[in-house]
Amino acid sequence: MIIERATASDADKIILLQRLAYKSEAELYDNFGIPPMMQTLKEMEDEFRYKTFLKAIVDDNIVGSVRAHRHENTCHIGRLMVHPDHQNKGIGTRLMNEIENLFDSCTRFELFTGNKSEKNISLYKSLGYKIFKTEKIDDRIRLVYMEKQCKV
What is the pTM of this model? Predict the structure, then answer.
């Protein structure tokens, strides 16, 4: 597996992966209108202007991705995804480690996931993240915000 920076030319492949990877989340919440499922290719291409995207490649195929941006001393990490056929092989962990290494001058990392996404919460906890707040979106969805403090 290779992990490297993605470019806007990868957006079409990443958006397809995103829809496939987030299908299980949409099913979990019985809501196919969640932002990862609704994002357009143009919106993702626009994100490449201010976010750093990584991609995981296996056999010349993008099987994972994560994106992040810095605001003050916090790195905001989003949309960690791994192709369903490649999950539970450490790809998500490697992507998280790589994105944190790219933003190693930050003193804090922050991300969020859904409260029912137990596998995600478990992964993030194993990487040193702690829940610091929850936010009710609607009757079906609560977001769990997690952070990791770092020494610089």
Answer: 0.94
